[in-house]
Write a structure and sequence with these properties.
Layout: E1 6-16, E2 25-41, E3 45-53, H1 66-78, E4 83-90, H2 100-113, H3 122-137, H4 145-150, E5 153-157, E6 163-167, E7 173-180, H5 186-191, H6 199-218, H7 221-227, H8 234-237, H9 244-253, E8 258-261, E9 268-273, H10 274-290, E10 295-300, E11 308-311
Parallel strand pairs: 3-4
Antiparallel strand pairs: 1-2, 1-11, 2-4, 2-5, 5-6, 7-9, 7-10, 8-9
Helix pairs in contact: 1-2, 1-3, 2-3, 6-7, 9-10
Length: about 325
């Protein structure tokens, strides 16, 4: 391909942690997403030409931009003799708990990869996107990157040599997402976490993670409901979200399988059977409204549909 060749990629939002899988579990949420247009340039390196959408005041220096650093990692690893110009269209508000920084990194490397002479697989792209995500969160974790890239419910094992496993979700299950109109910065939400955890909580959380994954593979909704409880991270973070307990209680009272924080928050998610999902969403929205907080709310099926090329011109 010659200089000027272009591709546009879309990467969906994501729910990180999924209550029981801190930094290792996440699922895609195509209620929103980021688009990145990549164009090949003769000069090696990354230039960010434009940032538009729901967020536009992001750094244009590639070293301080998740998309820019992800593509820079791709250029370095593949030893390319050309570069890329990026135009970023943000569809995910930052600080929302929906993987906005991850989606930009994923969309950027996915678009750039479409323009190289020998494209690499998603596992390689995951490692490049991880370098971008570190700009936003300060740590190497892929619970948002992996589902945004691969799609669906994803378990990520390892960092240097990650293993990615897509986990089936029972067809009857729906994801309810409620985003209060608040901002909660990821670094701050990570900074409050304690560095030690009681052994009893570790055992409890391990059992919940194992039970949740087993329930998904076997379609066992009672096991999913019994397991979808975070005893380590949620207790430390719930105070950052006004009305959290009332919203969670409202969801559970309407038959949700479980309800917790999406990523670092403030978005909250619930899993519910399809026939109960509308009631769960309404209850969560009403509970936030009672606290004087407006919000956006969606219901989606969790399907293995991740990043994609949406235009090649």
């Amino acid at each position: 391909m010659t200089a000027g060749a272009q591709a546009v990629a879309f990467a969906p939002a994501s729910v990180g942690n999924v209550a029981v899988g801190f930094d290792v579990l996440g699922y895609s949420a195509p209620v929103a997403g980021d688009r990145v247009r990549a164009a090949r340039s003769a000069a090696r390196g990354v230039r960010i030409a434009a940032i538009t959408g729901v967020v536009s005041d992001l750094p244009v220096d590639f070293e301080r931009n998740t998309a820019g650093m992800a593509v820079a990692a791709l250029i370095e690893a593949l030893d390319l003799d050309f570069g890329f110009e990026l135009s970023i269209e943000k569809g995910i508000p930052l600080g929302s708990g929906l993987g906005g920084s991850a989606a930009s990194a994923v969309a950027a490397v996915f678009a750039a990869n479409a323009l190289v002479d020998e494209p690499v697989d998603n596992l390689q792209l995951l490692k490049f996107a991880m370098q971008g995500e570190m700009v936003a969160s300060g740590t190497a974790h892929i619970d948002n990157i992996a589902p945004s890239l691969f799609g669906g419910l994803v378990l990520s094992v390892g960092i240097d040599n990650p293993h990615i496993k897509q986990i089936p979700v029972p067809d009857i299950v729906r994801s309810v997402l409620v985003r209060p109109h608040r901002v909660l910065e990821t670094r701050g939400a990570r900074a409050i976490l304690g560095r030690t955890v009681p052994l009893s909580d570790v055992v409890w959380q391990q059992a919940n993670l194992a039970g949740f994954v087993a329930g998904c593979f076997t379609g066992d909704l009672p096991l999913i409901a019994a397991s979808l409880e975070d005893v380590m991270i949620e207790p430390q973070r719930k105070g950052l979200i006004p009305g959290f307990q009332k919203v969670k209680d409202a969801a559970m009272s309407r038959g949700a399988l479980g309800c917790s924080i999406s990523g670092a928050g403030p978005t909250m998610f619930a899993w519910a059977e399809e026939g109960k999902s509308e009631g769960v969403r309404a209850a969560m929205v009403d509970a936030f409204r009672a606290e004087g907080i407006t919000c956006d709310a969606w219901i989606t099926k969790i399907e293995p549909i991740g990043a994609s090329i949406v235009s090649d011109r």
